[in-house]
Amino acid sequence: MIDLPPPALLTFSPVTDMYPEMNVRLVTVQQDIADRLARLGGNWEQEIIINPTMFLAVIAKIAHSYAVAKLGIDGFTPDLRDLILLQEQRPWHYVGADPNDSGANTDTDLHKISLHVGKQGLLLARVQLFANFHMRPYSVVVGRLPSDFVLPAE
Prior knowledge:
This protein is an alpha+beta fold. It has helices at 8-11, 33-39, 52-71, 81-84, and strands spanning 2-3, 23-24, 77-78, 95-96, 112-117, 122-128, 138-144. The protein has one domain. Helices cover 23% and strands 18% of the residues. The model has no long low-confidence stretch (mean pLDDT 81).
């Protein structure tokens, strides 16, 4: 998974064209990984090429789709259209991670998604892929809510 800083829109960071520092975390899900590697001769290398913009667009699509499913197509003003269409030049302004949310939980759900209302009426989504492996969740600025909006219970 890719570890990211919080979305720039939530931290009020200066606008920049530079991607923020990201870390890629590989997590093994097989308990017998040492035995598997030994059968391969003990060494295994794999080059992984990740296009951060495409990855963030996938997370944005998940968040946007969930918001539409929960609130309806007219339930909010969407902010992710350009990112989903790969036309956004600064996707990290909309997708990131909460440094205080480790993703640790006792649930067995494969994935977890929820909506929250942020400052200034921002509609936020928390997208946790592979939650049962305690992957760190992503924070997504999905759009803007009307001033009189009350988020329905999940």
